[in-house]
Amino acid sequence: MLLHLQIDPRSGLPVYRQMMDQIRYYIASGTLGPGDQLPSVRELAQALSINPTTVVKAYTELQHAQVLEIRHGKGAFVNQSTPRFSESDKEKALRRLARQLAVEAAQMGASWEFVQGLVEEEWTEVAGADFQSPPQELRKS
Amino acid sequence: MLLHLQIDPRSGLPVYRQMMDQIRYYIASGTLGPGDQLPSVRELAQALSINPTTVVKAYTELQHAQVLEIRHGKGAFVNQSTPRFSESDKEKALRRLARQLAVEAAQMGASWEFVQGLVEEEWTEVAGADFQSPPQELRKS
Amino acid sequence: MLLHLQIDPRSGLPVYRQMMDQIRYYIASGTLGPGDQLPSVRELAQALSINPTTVVKAYTELQHAQVLEIRHGKGAFVNQSTPRFSESDKEKALRRLARQLAVEAAQMGASWEFVQGLVEEEWTEVAGADFQSPPQELRKS
Amino acid sequence: MLLHLQIDPRSGLPVYRQMMDQIRYYIASGTLGPGDQLPSVRELAQALSINPTTVVKAYTELQHAQVLEIRHGKGAFVNQSTPRFSESDKEKALRRLARQLAVEAAQMGASWEFVQGLVEEEWTEVAGADFQSPPQELRKS
DNA sequence: GTGGTCTAGACCACA
DNA sequence: GTGGTCTAGACCACG
Predict the structure, then answer these.
(1) Taking CB atoms and an 8 Å limit, are C98 and D104 in contact across chains?
(2) Contact C38, C23 (CB under 8 A)
């Protein structure tokens, strides 16, 4: 339950957003599975040497994004069900990221092969594990 | 002299930092060379629909970093001796974006084919015109 | 821009939720229209003698609910477009409220006619004004 | 002795207060009379899937308000001389719920017919059996 | 023990 | 001026 989040206060990215990104990554990559409990607010705050309210913000935002489920008095848990998005929303969000990647890669003079390889590497690292992980049909609540 | 900067106010990244990063990229990638003049503050601000003071801040910060030279009444210019990014820095920056794309796509339940197609579309749109997209050879990483 | 929110710290309802409820009411009843600017965080906090971060929380939650649009450095505005909900979500949310009303009314020994009249009164007060308000097609951004 | 309390943990209202309110309603409406015994703490807690300490808190608070009498080792009982709610109090409480329903329905773009139907469905389900729904007379408030 | 709310006040980003 | 983030610490609700 240590989660090993790495926070860089000088990155310009808000701390709570860095936390969100990394928690999402752990979930997507299978390190955290549906139903898994996250560290308590106080525990994580102390481990990262940040204020508890910052952790609360990260958790709350992830709750809004249907990534976490917060149970009062119990703790924060990875949501059971994959959140549903409309196809248009999905494409819109992902296209924004794809464009950002393409633009920066092009500006840096990267080749298409390089970019393609990079994306494939990250995809397999993140989603590959899921395909081999056990089916999630056993969980019902 | 439009520079094609891509700003996302909701990314959590400060706008002036997004600008700095991308200007650095332009310089590192050779799109901007030593001595080249950057757009005027007003011009850039209008093009990006942002406040001129934000542009000023980005330019000033880059001046402090010895990346730009501000000549009062003349404009902003790329400094001499601008270090190019190392290959590892390039990869690190792009990998961060690729990972973010992969994580969100995986959490949304997108297929690999969908992600791959999206990236390819954006790449051809962004880099295609400039680079005469090279022949589609097979690659593995 | 006074908005005249009434907060009762002893009601047991969180302050930010009381604010949300009343802002929603003002919007639904037409007192606040699409595009209207809300009081600034500091202004409202001072007027209600509460902490600014509490106002921020109310505004942020309403932003998540697609009721408000927050423009950094500009202020908070009533969203232009009515948020879209699936029919099933709509019914689920409203049925919860309808049931609560029915249960409590029944426990208090209210008659069906009384309940029906109450709902109709509130509906016309809230939605009636909208039907007579000018069409909103002129706004484009 | 199930009491049919309706608890919504996400309403923002403290659970113990929701319980207090509804127990007061039961008493005011005559469903619970002076001297009647309430469910045991454990029984209620299990039925509502909440923590026994929460039930204890609700009972204790009602004891302080002289609404209940706690007899050690015996249970909780409705006090003598429990004032019934005035008509205006009834209306105030119900109107609050009716308004909330109207506001949310209006913001979701629901039709009056939809809302009306929903309320009638819930009413008949909740009160129909108990009250042998009286003949449908015309009423105006 | 858990999370939820609120305060008081600081500093940053943006217009 | 606007909103956004973070800290330090308090008290409440819940298990």
Answers:
(1) no
(2) yes
What token pair was written down for B51? 């406040």
User: Are the CB atoms for C99 and D126 separated by under 8 Å?
Assistant: yes
Chain F bases closer than 7 A to any CB of the protein: 1-10, 12-15
Residue-wise pLDDT for C56-92, tens only, equals 999 999 999 989 988 888 799 998 877 677 788 888 8
Best-predicted range by mean pLDDT (A22-31, B26-35, B88-97, C124-133):
A22-31
Question: How wide is the angle at C-alpha B70 spanned by C-alphas B69 and B72, nearest 5°?
Answer: 145
- How many whole angstroms from its chain centre is CA B91? 14
Best mutation target among B18, B123, B137, B141 (most A Cβ atoms within 10 Å) is: B123
Averaged pLDDT score across all residues of chain D? 77
CB contact under 8 A, A98 and B95: no
Rounded Cα distance between B52 and C122, Å, is 48
Domains delineated in chain D = 15-78 (1.10.10.10), 87-138 (no CATH)
* Length of chain A measured in residues: 141
Q: Model-level pTM?
A: 0.72
CA of C69 to C1' of E4 (A): 25
Chosen for mutation from D18, D99, D116 (greatest number of chain C CBs closer than 10 Å) is D99
B45 CB-near residues (< 8 Å, 6+ apart):
B51, B52, B54, B55
CA atoms of C79 and C136, how far apart (whole Å): 12
Residue that is written with structure tokens 């860095």 in the block: A18
Q: How far apart are CA A81 and CA B108, in angstroms?
A: 11
Q: Say yes or no: D83 contacts chain C, CB-CB below 8 A.
A: no
Q: Higher-confidence residue: A68 or D88?
A: A68
Q: Tens-of-pLDDT digits for all 141 residues of chain B? A: 567 888 876 555 677 877 887 787 677 666 788 888 998 888 888 888 787 888 888 888 888 777 788 888 888 898 876 455 567 777 888 898 899 899 989 888 889 999 999 999 988 876 654 444 444 443 433
* CA distances for A66 relative to A5, A133, D64, angstroms: 20, 21, 41
Cβ distance of A100 and B131 shorter than 8 Å: no
The helix (run of H) or strand (run of E) holding residue D92 is helix D87-107
CA distance A122 to B126: 21
In this complex, the nucleotide whose C1' atom is nearest to the CA atom of residue C40 is F2
| Whole-angstrom distance, CA of residue D21 vs CA of residue D6 | 10
**Which nucleotide is nearest to B7 if distance is taken from CA to C1'?**
E14
| CA–CA gap between residue B30 and residue B33 (Å, rounded) | 6
More confident residue, D141 or B114: B114
